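User:
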Amino acid sequence: MTKYLDLTVLLDCFGQLHHQIGSFEWWESIGSCDMPLIKTQDNGESLVVFVWQDPQGNEKTSSTASVVLAVNSLTDHHSWEPECLNRVVGTDVWFGQLTVNSKWRGSYSFIPLPANQLPGFVKKQGDGTREAQRAWWLEVVANQIPDVLNKSPILTSGWGERLSTSFTSCTRGRRLERVGSGSFASIVGGSNTIYSLALIHTK
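Assistant: Predicted structure:
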């Protein structure tokens, strides 16, 4: 599991507004950005920050107890402890961070979970086997939603899932064209980069 930095620290790294997190003005500022936030580092890796607005408000008014960050080829779908977003207490803000290779591109989604679908709760209610974990994952993946703050094209997988695309800074802004069912190509100077629903392979 990723040890998250405080959101104010992360936003400061990106030069983004970090006062009054969750306010109308703050969400307007975040909405004007290219999401997720991506910062390329000197070691060939990029820091990626995801933000999701809970439509039901804060922890007192919302039925959402956790939000799984489902990133294709990075999220362990066979684990009872998947990568999850953190809520900023007292607000409608959920956020998460990943450090990835700067050449990585892929698709992702958010999976809001009510209390009765939390992996720890479900594991205790059942036998905790691999089959039970698989059944849990197939159930909760139906809650999957794209990132509405992401301005890139939304992909539809072969399972009918609506996924957001995430590009590191070295590829963001390239023109996408569909090249097949559920796949896109980035057309740059005549070279094609195939965007699959897992990692994206350059040919």
